[in-house]
Write a structure and sequence with these properties.
Length: about 300
């Protein structure tokens, strides 16, 4: 037994020595990483602690999201949580479909883009833009009490807007503010006012010469929902104080009922709102949403609620 114990001790000695050596090397390397105090001893530090992660700048796809191919749920939650400060409505000089400039000498309709602006910048983003447009090449026939004939499916593009972004020249730009005391989020304006009723399930009516009608109809119905739930004011304000003043009422529905020409700039011509086709969304009575009162001068102005 003694001989066997001696053999085991001889064989185990290098292994034990190696373990001790490794431990000493680890101790030395740890001390090298640790800062030295003034008295010559090492400070004890947590070398394994990970550095705090810095908040990353938001980054979203330039082309945004297209409904109904996608859904509002595809938009990142941090973007949907942004508080809305105001909305801007751009009546571009170029017509819908880029068939020419909108002037008093033709009957073209403005291309409309609505920008939802945040109360505070979200990184480099100031808001998102909305535009309803025909989907190229997707036609179908339909017959109901609203429309008989050919329809073209529409799509709603929701795109992020960066600070300093420049739009195409506009014949008129209007501003619509959030009602006092309200703090709607982007989610409220998209999910509650739009996707919950499938308002984006919309088609344009096709007329002779390839003309598609329904753009203003869609915007009327969208703002009718905002007005019904008192999200934004109906009163429309000038983009700049130097812009030509509005003629007549200044509510959003009267503004949408006009095409804005460039000769002279900012002049509005009242047009008929031609209906498109909503697959499932109810059509709100727009004129019932307009709240006006007579001011002391006898002119009609919107009554703030």
């Amino acid at each position: 037994m003694n001989s066997y114990a001696y053999i085991i001790e001889v064989l185990a000695k290098p292994l034990i020595s190696g373990i001790r050596c490794t431990g000493r090397l680890h101790s030395i390397s740890t001390r090298i990483e640790q800062p030295l105090r003034s008295d010559g001893t090492y400070k004890r530090t947590m070398t394994s602690r990970r550095p705090a992660q810095q908040a990353t700048e938001p980054h979203y796809p330039v082309l945004g999201w297209i409904l109904p191919d996608q859904d509002v749920d595809n938009i990142p939650l941090r973007l949907l949580r942004q508080v809305v400060g105001q909305m801007k409505i751009y009546f571009l000089r170029q017509s819908r479909g880029n068939s020419g400039s909108v002037t008093s000498r033709n009957e073209l309709m403005n291309r409309i883009i609505v920008e939802i602006r945040f109360r505070e910048n979200h990184g480099r983003y100031t808001g998102v833009s909305l535009e309803i447009a025909p989907r190229e090449g997707e036609f179908y026939g339909h017959t109901n009490r609203e429309h008989v004939g050919r329809l073209q499916m529409g799509m709603l593009r929701i795109a992020p807007v960066v600070e300093g972004q420049i739009w195409d020249p506009a014949n008129r730009i209007c501003r619509v503010g959030v009602r006092p005391g309200q703090r709607p989020t982007l989610s409220h304006l998209l999910e509650d006012m739009l996707s919950c009723e499938d308002l984006h399930q919309f088609s344009f009516a096709c007329h002779a010469g390839g003309v598609k009608r329904g753009q203003r109809d869609w915007w009327m119905q969208y703002f009718a929902r905002l007005a019904r739930y008192s999200v934004v004011s109906q009163r429309v304000r000038l983009h700049k104080s130097t812009d030509p003043p509005f003629d007549g009422y200044r509510d959003i529905f009267s503004i949408l009922s006009q095409r804005w020409v460039s000769d002279p700039p900012g002049r509005g011509i009242t047009v008929e709102i031609e209906h498109g086709f909503f697959e499932s969304a109810a059509r709100y009575p727009v004129h019932d949403m307009i709240v006006v009162e007579e001011d002391s001068s006898g002119s009609s102005t919107e009554k703030e609620q």
